[in-house]
Design goal:
By secondary structure, the protein is of the alpha+beta class. The protein is built from 4 helices and 3 strands, in the order βααββαα. The termini are far apart. The relative contact order is 0.12.
Length: about 80
């Protein structure tokens, strides 16, 4: 499992080189402001995996992607059958 580090926006600003070195070493840095996550720094080699895993989480069930797309478009454009 990846090493995850939490840093406030101020800590990130004041110590950017330190956190950049951590990311280069394979760690993930979660940046917060007022206690809420505002961003993440992840190593480049993990970025494709992170994106793929995020997208895979959307379609965990047996869903027809074409039907899901049509449902989203119907909702977006308020189309009724």
């Amino acid at each position: 499992m990846a090493n995850i580090i939490m840093a406030t926006a101020t800590q990130m600003q004041n110590n950017f080189g330190k956190y950049l070195s951590m990311v280069q070493g394979g760690s993930e840095v979660i940046v917060t402001r007022n206690g809420k996550e505002i961003g993440r720094f992840i190593p480049k080699e993990k970025s494709v995996s992170y994106l793929t895993d995020s997208l895979a989480g959307i379609l965990k069930q047996d869903i027809d992607p074409d039907m899901a797309k049509m449902d989203r478009l119907k909702d977006k454009y308020e189309i009724t059958d």
